[in-house]
Amino acid sequence: MERILDRxxxxxxxxxxxxxxxxxxxxxxxxxxxxxxxxxxKLAIKLRASNSTLARLALEWEVRDDRSSLVEFxxxxxxxxxxxxxxxxxxxxxxxxxxxxxKLVVTTNYDSLFEKALDEEGRADDYEVVLQPPQGxxxxxxxxxxxxxxQQQKKLIVYKIHGSFAPxxxxxxxPLVITEDDYIEFLTVLGRGKAEDGEKGKIGVPPRVITExxxxxxxxxxxxxxxxxxxxxxxxxxxxxxWHSARKSIAIxxxxxxxxxxxWAQKKVQIFNIDLYDxxxxxxxxxxxxxxxxxxxxxxxxx
Length: 303
What we know:
Helix 7 (141-152) packs parallel to helix 9 (207-214) and helix 8 packs parallel to helix 10 (228-238). The protein has helices at residues 2-9, 36-47, 54-64, 67-77, 91-97, 113-120, 141-152, 180-190, 207-214, 228-238, 258-265, 276-286; strands at 13-17, 104-107, 127-131, 137-138, 156-160, 202-203, 217-221, 249-252, 269-272, 301-302. It has an eight-stranded parallel beta sheet. It is globular and about 50 Å long. The longest helix is centred in the first third of the chain and has 12 residues, at 36-47. 39% of the residues lie in helices and 13% in strands.
């Protein structure tokens, strides 16, 4: 575990945040957000369908109704803040928000709780939110200039790889990766040679993100080893990194089945059998709060 903390101190660790980072804990007095399995059950009840994966049920909803109603349902089910003041950052998000050495945090969550934690730490001007379009970035001069500027700056990048609930400027449903079709398109986008032009003048992952990933240890937090999100990201993004520069990945996961431990060991993912909240305690000890937080207002910059 000390090796993980050393990598974080050195600015050579990239956390990947899954839904479990907002896990409810009665012991810690934290009311979190529902996980994917619970959301899938809610969708199945509304659709009067058999239980299945969230991605499959979301696709069925979209076909039967439309995208807007799907996003509205998920937003309500996840008590998306600021609509619900009960939504507050988890102890893990607060611990990560205090760590100034982090250069990139990747999240598959649609909420803005990590950004809220950063704001509450007085870091509203210290980070930039980057939303990954499911179809890729348009390969136009403005986007290329922004990517070049992003490569040079020192701000923490919050890379929301599956999108955000934040509405699009034109009022259309926010671009989220949620249905099976979205995941297929997402895999195609991330396979477009990363920062190079892809088909139809699209760009995959920003160069700044690739730079940080290839130079860092990857730390998966809040994922089940069998999670669709976890497996998709690893297959499309991590496994395609240059092998000579990709460091070993690490996951914090309590009580994993032997099959999944073996599966991920073959992919060079080391599993630490540690409760997520015990890991929070270790982060708090290694990176104590040193100054009063200054609440800030307003989100980070989203593109």
